[in-house]
Design a protein that fits this description.
Blueprint: H1 42-57, H2 64-87, H3 93-123, H4 126-136, H5 140-158
Helix pairs in contact: 1-2, 1-3, 2-3, 4-5
Length: 168
């Protein structure tokens, strides 16, 4: 006699009813009643991670290019992962959407930061500095004079000292 009660009657959907009496199913196969096999989420995870990195880096002046590049990659991977998830070929639709949104936000933010940096650089004589350095060529004395003139222009405009004198 079996120590387990028989399974309750009813419809088990696409899965076969469990065998009676607690015996394994014929053929040595183990039934999986609880879930289907998980679908790949690699592209969605990649899009989300790149989107997070892009949002963290686009607003810094030095890493704006990195943020824009990662934002572009996050948007592309997010879009591809969304289309695959909609077709049922992969999972992670929510992560793909989040990666796409973060990627687009970092693209827009990086472009705005880049424009602002360029405007501030141009308004404060940055283009004059670049022209002076190009004319100076490899003459270090002329290069130093260009840098000193630019530094003096910034100090006069903003009433700050960029290189404070040592105090004793």
């Amino acid at each position: 006699m079996s120590q387990y009660p028989p399974p309750p009657p009813g419809n088990y959907g696409e899965y076969p009813a469990p065998p009676p009496g607690g015996y394994p199913p014929p053929g040595g196969q183990q039934p999986q009643y609880w879930q289907e096999s998980p679908k790949g989420k690699g592209l969605a995870i990649t899009a989300l991670v790149l989107g997070i990195i892009a949002v963290l880096t686009f607003w810094t002046i030095i890493l704006t290019v990195v943020g824009v590049f990662f934002g572009l990659l996050a948007a592309i991977f997010g879009l591809i992962a969304m289309m695959k998830a909609r077709k049922g070929a992969s999972g992670g639709f929510g992560m793909a959407v989040a990666g796409l949104i973060l990627g687009v936000l970092s693209l827009i933010g990086g472009i705005v930061v880049g424009i602002l940096v360029w405007v501030v650089f141009k308004d404060n004589g940055g283009t004059d500095l670049v022209d002076c350095l190009n004319k100076a060529g490899s003459d270090t004395t002329a290069q130093q004079r260009c840098q000193d003139e630019f530094q003096q222009r910034i100090e006069d405009k903003f009433s700050v000292t960029l290189t404070p004198a040592p105090t004793r």
